[in-house]
Amino acid sequence: MAENLNLFTSTQNVIKEALTKLGYTEEMYELLKEPLRMMTVRIPVKMDDGSVKIFTGYRAQHNDAPGPTKGGVRFHPEVNEEEVKALSMWMTLKAGIVDLPYGGGKGGVICDPRQLSMREIENISRGYVRAISQIVGPTKDIPAPDVYTNSQIMAWMMDEYSRIREFDSPGFITGKPLALGGSHGREKATAQGVTICIHEAAKKRGIEIKGARVIVQGFGNAGSFLSKFMHDAGAKVVGISDAYGGLYDADGLDIDYLLDRRDSFGTITTLFDNTVTNQELLEMDCDILVPAAISNQITAENAHNIKAAIVVEAANGPTTLEATRILSERGILLVPDVLASSGGVTVSYFEWVQNNQGYYWTEEEVNDKLHRNLTKAFDNIYEVAQTRGVNMRLAAYMVGVRRAAEASKFRGWV
Ligand SMILES: NC(=O)C1=CN([C@@H]2O[C@H](COP(=O)(O)OP(=O)(O)OC[C@H]3O[C@@H](n4cnc5c(N)ncnc54)[C@H](O)[C@@H]3O)[C@@H](O)[C@H]2O)C=CC1
Ligand SMILES: O=C(O)CCC(=O)C(=O)O
């Protein structure tokens, strides 16, 4: 039978399993099995050559019982409705895991920013905000960066929203530049969170970070900072990749040089001749493997060939459920996306809190709080996995779904 690569239906399956294990009713699953709201928008954009192009975008709001919904916006040619829905459900789980007063939201626009000018990207960003402005806001649904979106795009979106509402609204969006109410530490937060999870997972497996061989798929916001943190901690980053291929060197790559040369889309391998494919890279020798790019990368096809002892998912949805089962059976410790990549939304929450209170924290304060949240979340999920005899993904779903379920119950929805 063909493997299920549908992110939405496989997420539903695990949510159902988690709710059943926690003793919730079928009605609770009916409520949480898909977003409460899904908006599809069409965005007309004047292109630089004078033509008008219509872009399609989405915003999904999974469950707003715990508080406003929250989650990033992705600009990518492969964005689709089902993926955005699944991404919004994962945001609910992340908020539950790191104990934030949010439900999950997520958005995306089908486009390829690598083929667009800055002006065209700005027009898409502003057009997207105009199109979804009725359903978002600092106390409704708060966007943030994701694949191929960054702090400049957040700034344009914040400006557009503030103009529509006719007041300055820094709390409308997170991941902003520092000059516009961004938080210290947000840019590196996803990678910081992944790093904390790697350290915790390595302790569980008795692996020394110093000298450990690490492969990181993706060299964008998450992957590049993570490579740097691992390198600085004394690990040997032997492989990295981007959308065009991968680089592997058993003696360790020169991470500082690669960081210096990468472009703003996280592209670096196009400067080299001796590249491997992304699929080859995933199967190469290492101790720790970090998929930090896109979904469905570790599947039933290659899960048997993964050499790492630990897989830590910085990306959303990089490992299928069948591959999760195979890795688990092989004794590989998999730290799931909803835990490992929750550092980004954690510091986004800190940014929103700082915007609301109008008083800003130092980078040390932010990093301390992040460290406390993430280690607590890791320990909690590891413990649930051990005591309930389930893998880390199911344990993370069990921990993550509880807050939305309880909030929905107290509101009298179910
Ligand atoms: N930026 C954030 O705060 C957060 C990001 N994530 C997840 O981390 C992953 C990476 O996101 P960012 O680093 O923010 O994005 P980014 O846009 O900064 O970088 C994306 C990287 O993935 C590579 N890539 C794109 N398409 C690819 C393909 N088909 N095959 C292999 N590599 C490909 C790009 O070349 C680039 O190196 C995504 O799954 C995202 O959802 C998760 C939590 C928070
Ligand atoms: O920072 C945020 O609010 C959301 C980050 C995000 O989209 C994610 O964790 O996938």
Automatic annotation (TrEMBL):
GO terms, molecular function: glutamate dehydrogenase (NAD+) activity; nucleotide binding
Keyword ATP-binding found: no
Entry keyword annotation includes Nucleotide-binding: yes
Binding site for NAD(+): T190, N221
Gene Ontology annotations of biological process type: L-glutamate catabolic process
Domain of life of the native organism: Bacteria
Keywords: NAD, Nucleotide-binding, Oxidoreductase
SMART domains, per database record: ELFV_dehydrog
Binding-site residues, substrate: K70, K94, S348
UniProt-listed InterPro entries: Aminoacid_DH-like_N_sf (IPR046346), Glu/Leu/Phe/Val/Trp_DH (IPR006095), Glu/Leu/Phe/Val/Trp_DH_C (IPR006096), Glu/Leu/Phe/Val/Trp_DH_dimer (IPR006097), Glu/Leu/Phe/Val_DH_AS (IPR033524), Glu_DH (IPR014362), NAD(P)-bd_dom_sf (IPR036291), NAD_bind_Glu_DH (IPR033922)
Family to which this protein belongs: Belongs to the Glu/Leu/Phe/Val dehydrogenases family.
Name of the protein: Glutamate dehydrogenase
Organism expressing this protein natively: Domibacillus enclensis
